[in-house]
Specification:
Helices cover 42% and strands 19% of the residues. The protein is of the alpha+beta class and 153 residues long. The protein folds into two domains: 1-48; 53-142, no CATH class. The longest helix is centred in the N-terminal third of the chain and has 46 residues, at 3-48. The chain is rod-shaped and about 125 Å long.
Length: 153
């Protein structure tokens, strides 16, 4: 075999090896960039969980604010939040707007409160609602008292 041919073949194999190693580096970088992009998407999904169109139309599991709390909140489709304690349940009206957080949870003023058979007092319930709402990115709005005509004597 011609020595010039042997040297050219050796040089070609060396260049081919460098090209293959460079391609491997590029491919590894692309794979790592893709994985990082997927991790970022998952972080965004976990941060946005509980908001958006799909979440608004799915029933969530009850959300307890304390591990052994005797009460729970459950957000339901069509702008409702249900509070449950041993005495019964109360359904809050919510405003979700365009399905983006923050959602607004409306509670009647204390003067108009008719909590029924709930064990929690108005103040306890309001504190629980505010704690739950803060943890889930909602805003509590206390409705103004209803105007009643003066009582004639």
């Amino acid at each position: 075999m011609d020595p010039l041919f042997t040297a050219a073949a050796a040089r070609g194999r060396a260049l081919l090896g460098k090209i293959v190693r460079s391609a491997e580096v590029v491919i590894d970088g692309a794979v790592e960039a893709y994985r990082e992009l997927e991790r970022e998407r998952e972080r965004e999904r976990s941060r946005d969980r509980g908001s958006g169109f799909a979440a608004a139309f799915a029933e969530d599991t009850p959300h307890r604010t304390e591990p052994e709390a005797p009460y729970s909140f459950k957000s339901l489709w069509k702008e409702r939040l249900v509070y449950t304690d041993p005495g019964g349940t109360y359904e809050f009206q919510c405003g979700w707007g365009n399905f983006q957080k923050p959602f607004y949870v409306y509670i009647p003023a204390e003067e108009d409160w008719g909590g029924g058979r709930l064990h929690a007092s108005y103040d306890e319930l309001l504190a629980r609602l505010r704690a739950w709402s803060a943890a889930h990115g909602h805003i509590v709005v206390v409705d103004p008292p209803r105007r009643r005509p003066p009582v004639a004597e």
